[in-house]
Structures are given as C-alpha cells and as structure tokens.
Amino acid sequence: MFSVLRATTRVVTATPLAMRASTTNTRGMKIVAALYEDPVNGYPPKYARDSIPEIKVYPDGQTTPTPSAVDFNPGDLLGCVSGELGLRSFLEGLGHEYVVVNDKDGPGCDLEKELVDADIVISQPFWPAYITRERMDMAPNLKMCMTAGIGSDHVDLEAAMEKGITVTEVTFCNSISVAEHVVMQILALVRNYIPSYNHIVNGGWNIADCVERSYDVEGMTVGTVAAGRIGLAVLERLKPFDCKLQYTERHRLPDQVESNLGAKYQGNGRDAVEKMAQECDIITINCPLYPETQHLFDRKMLEKMKRGSYIVNTARGKICDEMAIRDAIESGHLAGYAGDVWFPQPPPKDHPWRSMPHHGMTPHISGTSLSAQHRYCAGVRETLESFFAGTAIRDEYLIVQGGALAGVGAHSYSGGNATGGSGDAARFKE
After folding, report:
1. I need a labelling partner for 128 at 20 to 30 A (CA). Which of 80, 316, 380, 389 fits?
2. CA-to-CA distance for 249 and 293, rounded, in angstroms?
3. Contacts of residue 315, Cβ cutoff 8 Å, sequence gap at least 6
4. How many CA atoms lie within 13 A of 300 on its CB side?
5. H-type helices in 123-280, by residue range?
6. Of residues 185, 313, 345, 373, which has the active-site annotation?
7. Known catalytic residue: 316?
C-alpha cells in the first residue's frame, strides 16, 4: 500500500513474558549507536529525489513500523554518524544520553570506551558493532542490543541468552531492498554489465570484449538458499524472467505459493543445498548466519556446482569460505560471484574478494537505501518506545528475550555464536 507519508500511532499491550525494562527505571539511560561514517564530501545538503513512497504494509501483511512520531524527513540519510538514526531529539527529550560512534573495532576503540556504562547498544549489519561475550562483560549495565536493520549475527546470541540481554532487529524493514539488489547483481553478472560499463568509461567500444561473457538469464535454473522474506521476494521477481526456480527452506512454502512460482522444493539442510547446487546455474544465498550455516559454501559445496555457475550472496559473508570462493573464480569453475556482505566488516584491504576476477561485490549497501533507512530508523524508535514504556516489543522484532530465542528469532535462528574472528575488522584501519 502506498500513500502520503504521515506519522501514525500504535497501541501496544503487554504479554505475559515481561520485558526486562518493565522492572527497570528507564530514566537516564545511556544509548550507544555505532554508525557508518558520513559521505566523503560531507552530509548531503540536498537529495536526488524530493520524496519517497510510503509503504504501510509488507507483502505478508505485517505492518511497517509505527512509532508515535519521527524526528526526520523520510528519504534523508540517517544511517551515518551525522544522521544519528534520527533519534537524538527523541532520546534526549526523555532525559537519556545518546552517544554515536564510528570507531567500533579493536581494543580500546571508541565503542569499547562507551560500552562500559551503556544500557543499550544499537548497531547495523552494514557497519556491525560485534557484541562479543568479552564486550558484554565490559558492559554490566547492558540490557538490550538492537540491530537497525535485519540480522543479529554480530551479537553473540548464546552470551546474550545467558546474561538476560534482549536482542532485537527490525524484521522486513529492508527485505525488498535486498531482494532488488540480488536481482540487480544476478543480471550484472550474467550480462557482464560491469566490464561493459567500464569499457565506455575508459573510452572504448569493443563489443566483442563486452559480450564474450554475456548470457541471458532466461531459461536458467536459479535456486535460493532459504525462501523467507528475502528469498521469496527474489523468486517472485525472477519468475517474469522465465527462469526455472528452486529453493531450500526450513519451513516449506504454502502449496499455492509454490505452485504460482513453479518452484521446486529441495528440502532443508546441507544435503538439500548440495542437491540444489548441482542443478542450478545461479545460486542466491538468503539465509541467516548461525553456526550451522557458517562456511556452508566450502570447497566441497562449490565442487558440486556446475562449471560456469554464479553465486550472489547478500546474506552474510561468513556463509562462504572466502578462499574457496576466490579459488573457484580464478580456476573458472565459477563464472562470477557477487554480493555485498563480507566477513569481517569492513573487510581488510587485502581481502581476496577485492581483487579476484569476475566479481560484482559492493560494500554492504543492499539494505540501507534511503527508502530502507526510513523504515529501519522508525522501527528502532518503535522498539525503544516499547522498551521505555515497559510494554511488549513486537514478536517480529524479537530475537532474544528472557534468556531464550524469542519471536522471529525462535523461527529463524539457532543458539550459538557466529562472532568468532570479528577482531580482524580492525585490520581495515591498517
């Protein structure tokens, strides 16, 4: 649904599982947000567009975030340091301290200095503040870890459960944004778009050089690892291209949805992914990162794939073995690899994906378009309003609460820790 943008109000009722905030004085809390840096040329004085469409309801019927108000203009750049997620007036107006940092990696970084007395930490998948067990130990007052976006693998969920820390994200806020990015990168790889663009930029016009690796997506078999909100949206957007569609998923799609897509269900788990990989020309990875999916695409999995196939990974970089991907690209077994997720983030300057051939990698941007930022910032504010009021946070936003996986977390995640190795993110500064 689309309409003129306006603030809306939502009534929230408490559930039997009370929030930790309900027994805590929420006045005078300290909230720390780790955000990506401002544009090189400074915060934009104006934007390419004057407005963005408002989406009130997601495709599955879930409503978009409904805070009592927002203190920003939809379409503004909110995810960077100067954007502050649009929260400063709201938080300081309630008497809270709000600290925004960019330096988040390595011992003694600004984030660690501010964590020691923080009550709430807000991070983003695009510029993740890795909240490890060690960092939780530094923050005895920590009550909640929030993701401004989707994906909470940068938080040690096992430690959060042990310590009674609530973990939230803003489910569905940027799922369609990511799905659009997936389709764009599939087309960019298969049609050899990036090298062709570079020919023009560099003054060339050699058509043969442009088309020697260019194919049609029509008729190709495309499989998604997971068909949740993002994976399903990818399948729906690829159907008009007359692709043959497959998927793996914990929770099989309804018969009618599967029939409308003409999609083949391969099951769930590693064996199902291996079977699908053998049959597909293109694999798109759309599953969460947790211990069972870490390095799912290792050398053994890649060997199962067709020669000349493609992978687009906008899920999490750690789902793929970085050296195995590089070797498969350099050997010609894979025709191309694209995505926007790395491990760690930001990746060191010598990360092998930066320099390998036939890639279409970008920084982690798929879910932080200006349209998406409006929704995830509104969702963060909605969650904070519930937390401060001691009322229930939406189930769709809950990952961990009361010492256990909760809400969408219980549906999509498994317990454990996927933050190992995140300390290498500090090497980006070298």
Report:
1. 389
2. 12
3. 225, 226, 230, 285, 286, 287, 288, 289, 339, 341
4. 7
5. 133-138, 157-163, 175-190, 193-201, 207-211, 229-238, 255-261, 270-279
6. 345
7. yes
The verdict on whether 268 is a catalytic residue reads no
Q: Is 5 left (phi over 0), alpha (psi -120 to 50) or beta?
A: beta
What is the full DSSP assignment across 326-340? HHHHHHTSEEEEEES
* Burial classification of residue 322, based on how many CB atoms lie within 10 Å of its CB (0-12 exposed, 13-18 middle, 19 or more buried): middle
Backbone phi and psi for residue 315, each to the nearest 5 degrees, phi listed first: -85, -85
Residue of 174, 266, 313, 373 marked catalytic: 174
- Out of 96, 229, 316, 374, the active site residue is 316
Model pLDDT for residues 356-380, shown as the tens digit of each residue = 999 999 999 999 999 999 999 999 9
What tokens does 254 get?
């309804």
Question: What gap in Å lies between CA 29 and CA 118, rounded to an integer?
Answer: 8
Q: Which stretch of DSSP H or E encloses residue 317?
A: none
Question: Strand 334-339's sheet: what is its strand order?
Answer: 264-265, 244-248, 221-225, 282-285, 309-313, 334-339, 359-361
- Note if 326 is an active site residue: no
CA distance 126 to 248: 26
Q: How far apart are the first and last CA of the chain?
A: 47
Catalytic annotation present for 351: no
More confident residue, 10 or 72: 72
Residue 130: what residue type? Y
Catalytic residue among 181, 364, 374, 394: 364
pLDDT value of position 23: 38
Q: pLDDT tens across 148-161, in order?
A: 999 999 999 999 99
What is the pTM assigned to this prediction?
0.91
Residue 85 CB burial class (10 angstroms; 0-12, 13-18, ≥19): buried
Count of Cβ atoms closer than 10 Å to residue 300 Cβ: 11
| Close Cβ partners of 124 (under 8 Å, ≥ 6 residues apart) | 34, 35, 36, 79, 147, 148, 149, 368
Angle, CA of 210, 330 and 299, to the nearest 5°? 130
